[in-house]
Design brief:
Strand content: 25-35%
Largest sheet: 7 strands, mixed
Distance between the termini: 26 Å
Bound molecules: magnesium ion
Number of helices: 10
Strand order of the largest sheet: 8-10-7-11-9-12-13
């Protein structure tokens, strides 16, 4: 049996066995957005790591060094955000091929440092080595959060309102524009390309939501809403019902799907690399949480559906019919390449 047969998540389930040889103080190991373990102090420590590999995660010719540096750090910060944490320190390891110019690398670190500065994250170390072919970047970020405010995947409860902190599908549309050589055709395409190239980690949003009574589970949308919400319902032993007309989609995405004649809700569901947060909250507190969010951030917290006791995920369409949702998002060991 090969990696293709078990998929990325099957592989993770396989390697997580035997990893905890000293479990005391460990709250979460492999299987959530970040690891969490107790230190001496009042707060728990969070650790997350992500590796970006040329031709698997990005095309160097299609991505500036600045954008790549930004994204390599942003995806890690997003995982800290999904735990409700404050990001603290970053460690960057990089394997560099001979044909990668110093200018590209300078821009890469500039992109990383610009985001790090805005998020008050120190770059404290890492490793640098030579690669024979592809550029490889691995970033590790630590963070911290009060233990009782930690946002976990396994804490959703039946009846919870499901929220998204932002629009879905823009990044994948931006990727499509790049891969199909379609854009940019105008300011709307520029917005989609920016969503793909410079995703903004929702750290302040995650911290805000973690501090609200009644917020239960959270995850960041990296693989796509259907896939990532699938992780919450699987870990929580619940199901979910989403409403197609409530999925937050930008005007730019609506223009994109109209132009290509594809279903906007389907596109937003599959998405990927949105780096918004999906959180679930007690329905009795949901209105207050959404009002507080709008006051704090000047934009809506989108209610997109409900956590159900019955397993499985369904999408209710505009006509009121519901159909099952399959997790169609990203799985690196099951997909052969970027799309189509
Ligand atoms: Mg994540």
């Amino acid at each position: 049996m090969g990696l293709k047969a078990i998929g990325e998540f099957g592989f993770i389930a396989r390697i997580r066995r035997g990893c905890l040889v000293r479990p005391e103080g460990v709250i979460l190991g492999i299987g959530d957005d970040a690891a969490a373990f107790r230190t001496d102090g009042r707060l728990v420590c969070l650790v997350t790591t992500d590796m970006l590999i040329e031709r698997v995660h990005f095309l160097r010719a299609a991505m500036s060094g600045f954008d790549l540096g930004h994204k390599a750090l942003a995806v890690n910060l997003s995982d800290i955000a999904a735990m409700g944490g404050t990001a603290r320190e970053a460690f960057v390891s990089i394997a560099i091929p001979d044909d990668c110019t110093l200018a590209y690398l300078d821009a890469l670190y500039d992109g990383m440092k610009a985001l790090a500065e805005r998020c008050a994250v120190n770059l404290l170390g890492g490793d640098t080595t030579r690669s024979l072919a592809d550029l490889v970047i691995n970033v590790t970020v630590t963070g911290q959060a009060p233990e009782r405010e930690l946002l976990r995947r396994d804490a959703a409860r039946p009846g919870d309102v499901i929220f998204s902190t932002g629009c879905l599908g823009d990044s994948r549309a931006g990727l499509s524009l790049i891969l199909k050589g379609l854009g940019p055709g105008g300011p709307e395409d520029e917005a989609l390309l920016a969503a793909h190239r410079r995703p903004e980690p929702h750290l302040a949003e995650g911290r805000f939501l973690a501090a609200q009574p009644g917020v239960h589970a959270a995850i960041d949308v990296s693989d796509g809403l259907s896939s990532d919400l699938g992780h919450i319902v699987a870990a929580s032993g619940t199901g979910a019902r989403l409403e197609a007309e409530r999925l937050p989609v930008s005007p730019a995405l609506q223009a994109f799907t109209a132009r290509l004649g594809i279903d906007t809700a389907e596109f937003a569901l599959a998405g990927g690399e949105d780096y918004t947060l999906i959180v679930t909250a007690d329905p009795a507190r949901a209105g207050e949480i959404a009002r507080g969010f709008r006051e704090a951030f000047g934009r809506p917290l989108y209610a997109i559906g409900t956590i159900t006791a019955a397993p499985g995920m369904t999408l209710v369409d505009l006509s009121g019919r519901s159909r099952p949702i399959r997790p169609t998002g990203w799985d690196h060991f099951k997909e052969d390449s970027h799309e189509g």
